[in-house]
Amino acid sequence: MFIRTAKTKRLFIILLFLFPAAVFSQVKNYVGIVREKYYPESVSMLEEYRELLQSKGYTSYAKAVDSYLKGGFGSGFVYVAPDGTNYIITNRHVVSQAETVSIEFEGDNGGTTKYDNLKVLNADEEIDLAILSFPKGINPFKTGLSFSSKPASDGQDVWTAGFPGLAGEPLWQLGKGSVTNASARIKDLVDPDITALIQHSAQIDGGNSGGPLLITDKTAETGYAVLGVNTWKYRGRQDTNYSIPSAAVQAYIKKVLNPETLSAVKEQAEMRVRDFVADAAKQDNDFTDIVKYISYSYVASEGKDAFMKALSSAPSAVRSVVVAVFNNYSPIEGMRYALAWDIWQKLGKNEERSLVSAGEVTEVSSVVCTAPIKSEKFENPVETRWIPEQGLWRLERFGEVKEKDEDGKQGKKTGKKSSSDNSDAPFFGFESPYASAVQAGFDASLSKDAKSGFCASYTYFADFNGLDARWIGIGLGLSADKVNFVSEKDYVFVKISDANRFIMGPLLTVQVPMSIGKAYVLPYISGFLGFNWAGFGSFDNKTPQGVAASFEGGVKGGYDFGADINVFLGLGYRRMSQKASSFGKGMAVEKNSLIISAILVF
Fold first, then answer.
1. Of 596, 597, 590, 555, nearest in space to 575 by CA
2. How much is the pLDDT for 491?
3. What pTM was computed for the model?
4. CA-CA distance, 505 to 500, in Å (whole number)?
5. Which residues are CB-contacts of 30 (< 8 A; sequence separation ≥ 6)?
6. How far is 584 from 565, CA to CA, in rounded Å?
C-alpha cells in the first residue's frame, strides 16, 4: 500500500507541474521557424527598383521594398509519410516567393538545429497550404506530429504552437484557447466548397502562420494531435483566429504526395490553361481571380513596368488593391497583382472575356509549355508561355493583344483604342506620388504699405496610408520684401519707409491632390509663422522686428512627364500680418498679395 507522506505529496505536486512542460517540450521539437530564400533575380530586381522608387518620390513603396528584402519568417511542423520521408507542412503565404526554404528547430537548452535548401514541393493557392521537402536522402525525424481523426467541436480546448515575432525575432509561443465556431464558412478566406474553417480564441500573432492548432490526444506520442493549421487572424475583433482543419490538410497532403493523382506534363498544363480561361470568363470575377496564374519569374522580368502602369493608369479601386498588397504584404505580390490587372484589361470587358478560349497546348519541354489564347476580338491569337513553379503551372509570358477593327477585318487599323489602352478606365483619383515640393515665387503685393518681394518654401507630404494620399505637409517657408510702418518711441510716432523684412519659420500645408490621367491639380491652404530675421539685433527702428503670421490659399498643378523631378506652377492668395515691435512700439503691418510660383516636385 502506498503511503502519501508530506515529502511524497510535494513530489506529486511538482510532477503535476513538470508533466505538461515535458509534453510541450516534445511538441516544440516538431515545430520550427520557416524562412524563405528569395529567387536571386527577384532580389536583384527589387534592389534596383528600391532606388528608382526613392528617386521618383515613392518613399512608402521604397520602404516596403527595403523591409521585404530584410526577410520574414513563419512556422511549420514535421509530417512523416508512411514510407519514412520527412516533410514540413506550412502555409503557402509563408513560402510563396521562395526559391528554397530553411527550417530551424529550437532545443530545450536554447540551442538550434537548422536545415537548409528545402524545396517548395507544392503551394496551393486555393487553400493556402504548402508542403516542403528536405534535400534528397535527409530524413532527420522518425515520427512527426499526428493528425486528429475527429473534427473540431464548439467549446473544445485548443493550443496554437509556433514562433511569432517579438522585437523582430521569432519567439516560441504556446497559446491556449477554445473553438468558438467549429465550421466557419468565410468565402474571402477559403471557398466553402473546399472546406470550412475552425474559428478559435487561442493566441495567433505574426509568425504563427503555418504552425499547428493542437488538441490533447493520449494516443499520440507527444500527447497532442494536429486539429488544424493556423493561418489567419481577424484584427477587427478580439481573439478571432482561423485555422484550416486537419481533414482538409490531410486531403491536400494525399493529393500532392500520391503519384497516382498526377497527370502527364502536358495534361497538367492543359488543365491549368483551361482553368485560367474559365476564371477570366466568369462574369462575377475580377482581376484578383487570375493572380494565382502569374509566375514569380514573370514578376522578375515584367513586374516593375506593370506596377508603374497600375500606378499611373489603373482605376482607383484597382490601384488601391495593388498598392495595399505591395505595402502591407509583399512588393513581389503587389507586382503580381499589377500583372494580373494588366492581363485582365488586355482580355477586354466582361462580354469580351466570355469570347476567350485556349488553343492547343504545346509541350516545349518538361518545364515549358506554350498555348495560344484566342478571341473573336483579337486580330491574332495571343501566345502564352507556362512554366512549373512550386508544383503549379504558371504564366511566364502573356503576349500583346491586337484587336480587330470595328468591321471585324484583320490587319485594318481604324485608330480605335484596344482594351490594352485602358480607354474605359477612369483617370481621376485623389493621390499624388510626389512627396517633396520646393517652391520659389514672386510675391505680388496688393497693399500700399508693402512692396512686392520673393517667397520660397520646402514642404514634405507624408503618405500616412500607403496609397499616395498625400494630403498633409510640413516644411519651412520664407518671405523677403519691404514694408512701410509706424513706430512709436517716447510718445513720438515715426513713419519708416522701405523697411527690410526676411521672415522665416515653420509651414503647415493641407492639399487635395487630384490626378487626371498624368495631369495633377492640387488645391491647397497653408499657414506660415515666422520671425523677421532682418530685424534681429536692430535698434534703429528701421526694421520691424517681431513675429509674422500668414494664411495662403490657392492651386498648383502640372503634368507628369515621367522624369524623376517635375515642374508644377502655382497661383495663390496670401494675407500676412506682423506686429512690428522694434526698439520702440510698432503698429501692425498688414499685407495682401498674389503668389505666383514655380514648384519642383519629386
1. 590
2. 54
3. 0.64
4. 17
5. 77, 78, 141, 144, 145, 222
6. 47
